[in-house]
Amino acid sequence: MRDTETGTGWVVFAGIMIMIGGILNMIWGIAAISSSSFFAEHATYIVSDLNTWGWILLIVGVLELGAAGSIWAGGEYGRWFGIFVVSLNAISALMAIQAYPLWGVCLFAIDILVIYGLAAYGGRSLAS
Asked: In this predicted model, which residue has the larger pLDDT, 5 or 124?
C-alpha cells in the first residue's frame, strides 16, 4: 500500500528541475562571462550584452541551488523562496527569447510547471 501524500511528485519534480536549472545557469553564466563561442555570435539581447547576462545567469543559478536545498528541507520558506527564484529564472528566459526563441519558451514552460508544483504542494515536508 502506498503511503505517499498527494503532490509529493510535484515537489520532487520542482526540486530536481530547480537543481538542474541552477547547475546549467551557473555553467552558462560562466561561459557567457568568459565570452565563450558557445553562444550565438550575433545574438541580440533585450537588456545589455552577453557579459551582463552571464553575471545574471550565474547569480540566478546560485540562488536556484539554494532554493533546491531549501525545497528538499521542506516547509514554507523553501516553497516561497523557490517560487521567487523560479520566477526570476522565468523572467530571464523571456528576456533572452530574442536570442534563443525555442529554448526560452521551453524554459519558461518548465518554470511555470515548477511554480505550479510549489504553489499547490510545496508547503509540505518531503520527510514526512
From this structure: 5
